[in-house]
Amino acid sequence: MKPKILRVGVVQQACDDHRDHNLRTSETAIREAAASGAQLVLLQELHTGPYFCQYESTELFDLAEAIPGPSTEFLGGLAHELGVVIIGSLFERRAPGLYHNTAVVLESDGSLAGIYRKMHIPDDPGYYEKFYFTPGDLGFEPIDTSVGRLGVLVCWDQWYPEAARMMALAGADLLFYPTAIGWNPDDDEAEKGRQRDAWTTIQRSHAVANGLPVIVANRTGFEADPTGTLSGAQFWGSSFVVGPQGEFLAQAGTERAEVLVVDVDLARSENVRRCWPFLRDRRIDAYSELTCRFRR
Question: Which of 36, 121, 130, 183 could form a disulfide with 261 if both were Cys (CB 3.0 to 4.6 A apart)?
Answer without folding.
Answer: 36
